[in-house]
Every structure is written in structure tokens, then in C-alpha cells.
């Protein structure tokens, strides 16, 4: 199958898995908390999105040259994805944290006033919004470095 011979695609996918696997020991080293749920989570160190797009761009650079139009497309795609991860998605996570805090304060206010009926209380109590959506810049840089290193090692060694 031609798809299985597409080295840039396979390297990008491999980097997603490598970055997700790295999240567990890095989180443990920083917090002394072992959390396997990080294997299937967004956010965290390193960014798997950044690793994938940088591996893809690096692989295309090796295969088609840094002066090719294909590399230009892949490089711009990588820059946009990394910008989105470290700015737009990160800010959305910060907003979700603020909204969660606001909901918790409102629920506490209703509890404190003890004037709320069960229907109103049920309307206030809900699941928290997901706050780990984006990345800090250091997480994006680490993901990018992961992708570039994996692709460079692959093309250098094989």
C-alpha cells in the first residue's frame, strides 16, 4: 500500500504517539504524580500537535527540499497550528477555568443563601468545562523539537 510507504505521514503519526507517551514521565518528574490519563489528553508537555506538524514539515524538507512549495505549505501549516495551540486554544482554556470558577461561586452562593429549590440547584450544578485545551509556549517548543528531532534522526539513520 502506498499509504504505508508515506514516510512523512508515518513520522507525523509516530510523533503524536511519542509526545503523548512523553507526557506521563515529564508530568511525573515535575509533580511527582503518576497520571496515565495524560496519554489521551490535550494540552501538557510536550505538545503532540506541534510534534506532528514539525515532524511532517521536517520530513517534507528532507524529501522535497527546503526550497520546495510543498515544504512551504507544510511549514506554514506548522506555524499556524503551533500559534493556535499556544494562543487561541490556550486562552480558551483560561476562559473555561474562569467560567468554571464563576459557576462554582454561584453554586456556593445559592447554598449559602439556602433559598434555592432543588430545580434551581440542579440547573447550576453541571460538569466543569475542559480547561486543558491549549499549550504554554514551552510545551509547543518542546513538541516542535520532538518532531524535528524524530524526523531528522529517521532521515539521518535510514
Automatic annotation (TrEMBL):
<dbReference type="InterPro" id="IPR003832">
    <property type="entry name" value="DUF212"/>
</dbReference>
<protein>
    <recommendedName>
        <fullName>Acid phosphatase</fullName>
    </recommendedName>
</protein>
<feature type="transmembrane region" description="Helical">
    <location>
        <begin position="9"/>
        <end position="30"/>
    </location>
</feature>
<feature type="transmembrane region" description="Helical">
    <location>
        <begin position="140"/>
        <end position="157"/>
    </location>
</feature>
<keyword id="KW-0812">Transmembrane</keyword>
<dbReference type="Pfam" id="PF02681">
    <property type="entry name" value="DUF212"/>
</dbReference>
<feature type="transmembrane region" description="Helical">
    <location>
        <begin position="50"/>
        <end position="83"/>
    </location>
</feature>
<keyword id="KW-1133">Transmembrane helix</keyword>
<keyword id="KW-0472">Membrane</keyword>
Amino acid at each position: 500500500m502506498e499509504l504505508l510507504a508515506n514516510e512523512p505521514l508515518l513520522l507525523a503519526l509516530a510523533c503524536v504517539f511519542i509526545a503523548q507517551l512523553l507526557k506521563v514521565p515529564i508530568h511525573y518528574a515535575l509533580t511527582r504524580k503518576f497520571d496515565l490519563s495524560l496519554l489521551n489528553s490535550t494540552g501538557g508537555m510536550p505538545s503532540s500537535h506541534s510534534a506532528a506538524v514539525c515532524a511532517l514539515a521536517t520530513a517534507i524538507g528532507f524529501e522535497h527540499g527546503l526550497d520546495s512549495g510543498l515544504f512551504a505549505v507544510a511549514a506554514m501549516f506548522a506555524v499556524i497550528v503551533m500559534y493556535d495551540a499556544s494562543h487561541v486554544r490556550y486562552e480558551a482554556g483560561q476562559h473555561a477555568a474562569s467560567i468554571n470558577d464563576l459557576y462554582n461561586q454561584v453554586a456556593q452562593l445559592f447554598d449559602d443563601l439556602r433559598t434555592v429549590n432543588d430545580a434551581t440547584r440542579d440547573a447550576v450544578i453541571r460538569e466543569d468545562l475542559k480547561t486543558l485545551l491549549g499549550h504554554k509556549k514551552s510545551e509547543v517548543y518542546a513538541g516542535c523539537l520532538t518532531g524535528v528531532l524524530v524526523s531528522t534522526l529517521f532521515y539521518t539513520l535510514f
